[in-house]
Design the sequence.
């Protein structure tokens, strides 16, 4: 699953929550109060026998990535 959306919307926090991990866990996606994700990160589901991979995608609506460019580039 790829999680996309606006910058600072909580995409990384959401990925950690559905994986049942606190933000301090070694396998957690990095989170912060400023935009933290700059490249696509992949995070395996911590449940045994799960083949699920979570993809954390950088946000839109920033000086570096405008909303229209983000959604066009992501094919949304």
Sequence:
């Amino acid at each position: 699953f790829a999680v996309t959306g606006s910058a600072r919307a909580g995409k990384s926090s959401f990925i950690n929550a559905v994986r049942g991990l606190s933000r301090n866990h070694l396998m957690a996606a990095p989170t912060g109060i400023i935009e933290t994700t700059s490249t696509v990160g992949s995070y395996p589901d911590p449940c045994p026998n799960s083949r699920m991979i979570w993809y954390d995608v950088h946000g839109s609506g920033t000086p570096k990535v405008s909303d229209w460019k983000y959604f066009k580039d992501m094919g949304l």
Summary: The longest strand covers residues 41-44. The first helix runs from residue 11 to 18. The two ends are 14 Å apart (CA to CA). The beta strands are 2-3, 41-44, 53-56.
